[in-house]
Amino acid sequence: MAMPQSEKIWFNGELVPWEDAKIHVLSHVVHYGSSVFEGIRCYHTRRGPAVFRLDEHIRRLLDSAKIYRMEVPYTQEQLTGAVCDTIRANRLDACYVRPIAFRGYGALGVLPFACPVDTVIAVWEWGKYLGPEALEQGVDVCTSSWHRVAPNTLPFLAKAGGNYLNSQLAKMEAKINGYDEGIVLGPDGLVSEGSGENIFVIRNGVLYTPDSSHSILPGITRHTAITLARELGFKVEQRPIPREGLYIADEVFFTGTAAEITPVRSIDRITIGAGQRGPVTRQLQEAFFRVVNGDADDTRGWLTAV
Ligand code: PPE
Question: CATH topology for 134-292?
Fold first, then answer.
């Protein structure tokens, strides 16, 4: 299925037509996965389009680049401004935003220093990540037979293109076996995260999520969910979760920019709780959508007006 196109893509500081945003096949990134990227959502609010937690996403992009010794020739302020310019240029009200910095065309061979760093921002309309019904009905997922790589192999604080080879293995396996998504265990056999989401477990009214030592991407939606859950009066603990802790949970949900807050209704064909979106997940979703849609007061400065 072809992706929904928009009109313009920000390419090294210029807005170019969608079709013209191209790179050479011998670009370093094509061969060695040398990119760092972000996924951000812009929501329709009463005050017009607004980008959710833009500063945190751009900060993470620049952090990812730093980890890989990649010099992005733009500042935090230039990039946040460029994201808003790109959304405006495409006249979109709500969209997904994909900034990416990568090692471009210059030389091949593993050592990337002779290649330029290219920076791109694309925006398009992206619907529900795990299917149109997922937010209300929940999804059916499996534990992947593929594990995350160990922390001393690929750094997980970096949101790097190469990391997603592991995610692709987990996701393809899940889909081919009839599931919506795969949960990946860490190298120690404990729960890490979904192929493109963080995971939370609820038991007896307490929320648990793996801490950052479990090969997770420290998600911005994860941080949002922790903050909102505590504000709603729930206790949230970041700690190791064994695989079977998923099965005996009252509720499980995923968090991610693309997935937002998606309930999980079964894992490995074991029904979670009542097999539908649970009450805590629902309460948290409502709080989340009030914030991102600008219906709640933006007390933390999480929304950037476009
Ligand atoms: N873990 C992984 C592996 C991950 O890819 C994401 C986001 C998260 C956790 C959640 O992070 P955050 O978005 O900051 O809450 N995955 C992005 C890309 C998904 C894709 O298929 O591409 C996203 O949700 O935008």
Answer: D-amino Acid Aminotransferase; Chain A, domain 2 (3.20.10)
